[in-house]
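Researcher: I'm preparing a figure for a lab meeting and need a structural model of a single chain. I don't have an experimental structure, so a prediction will have to do for now. The sequence is pasted below. Please return the structure as tokens so I can convert it later.
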Amino acid sequence: MLSLINLRKIRPDGFTKSESGAILMDDATRKTVIKAWQERKQDVLTHPFTGEKMAIGLLPHIQARLLARHIRGDLAEYPPFVWK
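Model: Understood. Here is the structure written out token by token.
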């Protein structure tokens, strides 16, 4: 979600470094990131292998089903999804 940084929706002051060296996200920044991810999952794309239009949030499920078909022998090769 680099676009959140580029659009200045999240800023460095939304993070703190703890004594142990861990980087912690404050609640407001966390809410912004989760909201943006939930919105992004609703975007629609056409899957290059199946040709179906689907929400981005369904990609892990579709890829798992394609992998299962390959393992069962229904598909000769597993078709990975590559972002373009």
